[in-house]
């Protein structure tokens, strides 16, 4: 890849009217730092490990990395419980390592997004230590204290969202673990302090943030009971108070005051696309919001068709740019979800990289990894999410590039066969398929930003056309175990085949079981 030594954040996009902002064209690669690569041999991935393996991301063709949290943390929730937002946890390295990683990424033309966790801190954060020290402490109101709990429930299996603090004689609110007390964003000092955190990282050149549970920061000020909580559902699954929008508008104004089109990607983990759209605001809240239904969708054409249609119907009128994601650190990997089928995972990759919207890849999906299997004594996460967090196998032979202490979680199944080195040597591997699809997406204005239109197809097949000016592509995905025919007017050639059969070749109007194809009109190709 050509080296661009200008940090992207100092290199704003040219002001061309119909040129989209960079994040619409981006292909984002989520790095889960504990499991990407180990630079110091302690069995846990770290910043130096990431810096040493950036070439993998560049070779693949992704242009943006998002790092799950690397800040100081007691690790009750694997770093989503932060005790210092402006320092790096020693497990991952130092502030100097982070600056070196930012510089190394920018030197390669890669943008870097950090994880911003605004809803809660760690209970070890000095702010909370001060807040719980006495009822009349000036920081008491930085968190949410009540004499009586309501029926709100916490996520990650934590039961009530309220924990009794015997020392100060009140309950504090936590929508996640008791070690993750919720900040009170209605207190202007909290807003100022958290804006200071954003400035700290923006000043160091980060290109934006993924905002953890962005829909949770505002809470119903009446603290009314909720029937869904009474029925056992965590509040974080549906919390949707108007005040969260005000918080996001404030963060957006701050981020927009920096040069270089910094981006905000929100985790609005509410399974209602109509509600999620609201978090784009009037172009003054999130730039992008995750779209979660595909994260637990089975390999089913009806489920995907419904979800894709809904995103198209609801986001277009709001001028909200979609995102697509199949796996992340909180959910089962999609190959595992699809019954372990590599064939389906390959077809899903073709869909992910040809839809209208920014694709987010989770590290290891390009290798076709499945969840690791853990024995009871190996389990780390209180929420049971270890499976997708397994270490990446870099080399075929054990310990797969993790020289030193045994990694913090077991490797995923078939780690040697699925390792980066093994798959790079095989032109028909899923790794090469991802790379080819990313190259196709980059080369095609239709795939990057064109319109999306569904085409008539048998019910087991999803087929759609992407178009931008004269540039046209068709993607078709067969979700069934049977051969399917697809009638398309005109002559088409296959540009990418999820089965790894060599391309280009003429499209014969058929799809094999669980096969997906990317097509281009023949006249355009000749
Ligand atoms: C988000 C994170 C998840 C974490 C939770 C609480 O959902 O993705 O890993 O446990 O927020 O911070």
TrEMBL record:
GO biological process: oligosaccharide catabolic process
Entries under SMART domains matching the protein: Aamy (SM00642)
Keyword Hydrolase found: yes
Matches recorded under Pfam families: Alpha-amylase
InterPro entries: GH (IPR017853), GH13_cat_dom (IPR006047), O16G_dom_2 (IPR045857)
Keywords associated with the record: Glycosidase, Hydrolase
Any GO MF annotation of the entry: alpha-amylase activity
Keyword Cytoplasm annotated: no
Domain Glycosyl hydrolase family 13 catalytic: 30-389
Protein family according to the UniProt entry: Belongs to the glycosyl hydrolase 13 family.
Protein name: Alpha-amylase
Source species: Cupriavidus nantongensis
